[in-house]
Amino acid sequence: MGLFGNYMNTGAGINPNAPKKKPFFRFWEVLWRNIGKIISLNLLFTVLHAPLLLAPIILMDTNNKFTYAMTIFLVLLQVVLEGPILTGCARVMRLIVLDKAFFFMEEFKKGFSHNFLAGFIFWLIDAVVIASVIAGYFVYPQRAAEENNSGYYILFGISLAVALILLFMNYYIFTLQATTTLRKRSVLKNAFQLVGLSLKQCLLSTACIVLILGLMWFLFSLTSYVLFLLPFMPAAFIGYLVTFLHYPVIQKYVIFPYYETSDEQNPDIEETVAEEDRVFTDRGGTETPVKAEKPKKGKIIS
Predict the structure, then answer these.
(1) Is residue 297 part of a domain?
(2) Which of 250, 242, 136 is nearest to 197 (CA)?
(3) ∠ CA 24-108-240 to the nearest 5 degrees?
(4) What is the pTM of this model?
């Protein structure tokens, strides 16, 4: 940047063939390079959750015959929109992780509109499982105490295990739907198989999410001003973290095998151009830096 040095001097450039950095360092490099897009995505994510944010306000601050109907309507509207929102975010996050140039709103709209029905179905499955686990948390212990039957705890444990597997599958479902042409059943099947092939990444993602949410809760316990951070970062950062960890798994087991057996160009890999067809050669990183000569002072006519 010209603010911190002499912008008149040219550098050696960036070598396009330089070896890739280790994942940890590349994680922060790509994050910093795309921080504006990540913040923008978090802001958009917050705006699209307006129905969910308005529902408790209407429920607590109004008292008329439309209060409950409007609250239920807003919650149902959010349930309908949630899946498409996640597919739109997944499409954008994939491009951020690949460090590609793209038009932000255009890609989000494609992910949102082209996968509206599929996103809604996937989120509906999630909502049913979440509701079942919450209900089981209150029902199973109560029934076990009333009937003196510990078998209900086994049922509750099974429901928790199903919810955990579905959580791991969600690390793949919306990204697969937004970036491939697989059918909905195939998306679920592939997501389940990828969980078995990437248990380490799933556990790491879950641990990081718990750590981030725990940190946010700790900061909130210190000061309520931390709420002002919510529209700008946490959700998109978690999405970036999950995509960074799990999209390489999708590439390895789904995308790369498909394009290796077809004549189509893999969109995740830049198309190579034959040497004789090149208009110019990128010599970034190999050129000798050139220092600009200091401009000579002109004569002053008095």
Answers:
(1) no
(2) 250
(3) 15
(4) 0.83
